[in-house]
Amino acid sequence: MSGNEEVPRVVSASREIAAGAGRVFELIADPAQQPRRDGNDNLAAAADGQRVRAVGAVFGTTLTMGSVRENHVVEFDEGRLIAWQPAEPGQELPGHLWRWELEPIGPSRTRVTHTYDWSRLTDEGRLPRARATTADRLQASLDRLAALAEQE
């Protein structure tokens, strides 16, 4: 890649999962489940009892490096869509977003699309990490999510 080529600022990955949308969504909407499916190996923990139910919800996660993030839910449709913007506690949102979209294909199949959008990211210090979040990292998260959802 030459120096003037820009890395895509919106990356996504999709796959079908052999589980119903309700089961898959529970694994996404419950922050305590996030570290189990994080293909970025960035999340260490999230407390139980933070199940997201609406836009405006805020849930906390602890990163592998020990810092805490408050995740502000900006899109929500039960069983279909959830998106949040992470920020350091009490700080302005730096402008990146994680989105999960679910499309039921049948009672026991769901197409899931995972997107990382850093097109509005303004914090220069976060840009190297954002550039490193590639579609294959998102695919790894989807694959881990599928493994969990299909365990029944």
UniProtKB/TrEMBL annotation:
SUPFAM superfamilies: Bet v1-like (SSF55961)
Signal peptide (from-to): none
InterPro entries: Polyketide_cyclase/dehydratase, START-like_dom_sf
Membrane-traversing stretches: none
Source superkingdom: Bacteria
One Pfam family of this chain: Polyketide_cyc2
Coiled coil: none
UniProt name for this protein: SRPBCC family protein
Organism of origin: Geodermatophilus maliterrae
Lineage of the species this protein comes from: Bacteria, Bacillati, Actinomycetota, Actinomycetes, Geodermatophilales
